[in-house]
């Protein structure tokens, strides 16, 4: 019997997903020891009491009898047709159910759409910061992620002229995440139009990740990319997870528009990949038509007085009060990508901060470097908790930053924290 270690694939060497990585594993260890952790690393609405609309749950229950067998590899027709109708309502012409693919969440579709497109060494333009699955999926599918900067000083909005200079003969696609994760930036129409023209001139496939499309605040206007892209292929990716608070349903879709007649072979390849995994979750697909065609309760949550609007306001106020923090106000999505002022803490390191905050203050955040940025003074939190919880979070963050400024190492680490920090009863911070 061999004692040799079983080595993982070398293809994973450059793949990172720290949102659920080492810090999250340590948080689970602390919870098992009895510590209460405020987990802000993941945008999971259910964890903060935000429920899926009841009409969607009922749609699934009523169609359980139709959900016991495989469905078409691209998804059930009512779900695909609902996506078509949404696209048509947004002014996107030429989309039929044949150009819509339903997947087990947008995450699966990111992988499948890139796998059907890329050859060894093909390049994909990906924003920095990005949702790290995009970079990982490019790498896993033999491509090279080329990051275009979305700088804090520009409100995390890309510069189209700078992006255009990154295009090479190997560039195959452009990824746009709008509203953006992790920054909450909502791109202006003029910027999106400029990106569309670059893609059209260079024959790039546009992958537009719009999972937060209806999560906008204070007058920010979401502009669908598919309405601007005409002379190349555009894939609009969205789903039920965020706007409809149904992460566990694992239902996403990719709707193709633009010059689909030139992409017949690519779409056939994507259908082949969809067939190999048989089909996506059938029961949850029955919620799509009800979701897209029914009352849009998200609008109440993001309007003044709504839960998400008020949580975002609490974060903006807390950052404004801090000597250490700065923030480009998020116009959309459910995250804040918070910066630490270099002039106040010149030696700040986002990964060490995230570890200290977890061990000493029992708050879990995602360090900025997780999102493929070259700087080390940012971290991401979700805006999903209520204002009272966020007040506790920022008090603990400020305590730690004050310790840094004073040169103090901080309180004892999680395993040796004082007994009063151990909370065994349920509370609103869970």
Give a topology summary.
Elements: H1 22-32, E1 38-39, H2 54-62, H3 77-89, E2 100-103, H4 105-115, E3 123-128, H5 132-140, E4 144-149, H6 160-164, E5 171-177, H7 189-202, E6 205-209, E7 233-239, E8 252-258, H8 264-276, H9 282-293, H10 298-302, H11 307-321, E9 325-326, E10 335-340, H12 350-361, E11 363-364, E12 366-367, E13 378-382, H13 387-406
Helix pairs in contact: 1-12, 2-9, 3-9, 4-5, 11-13
Walkthrough of the structure:
The strands form 3 sheets. Strands 2-8-7-6-5-3-4 form a 7-stranded mixed β-sheet, with helices on both faces. The protein contains 13 helices and 13 strands. The model is unreliable at 411-430 (pLDDT under 50). Strand 9 (325-326) and strand 10 (335-340) form a beta hairpin. It is globular. Helix 2 (54-62) packs across helix 9 (282-293) and helix 4 (105-115) runs parallel beside helix 5. The protein has helices spanning 22-32, 54-62, 77-89, 105-115, 132-140, 160-164, 189-202, 264-276, 282-293, 298-302, 307-321, 350-361, 387-406, and strands at residues 38-39, 100-103, 123-128, 144-149, 171-177, 205-209, 233-239, 252-258, 325-326, 335-340, 363-364, 366-367, 378-382. It is an alpha/beta fold and 430 residues long.
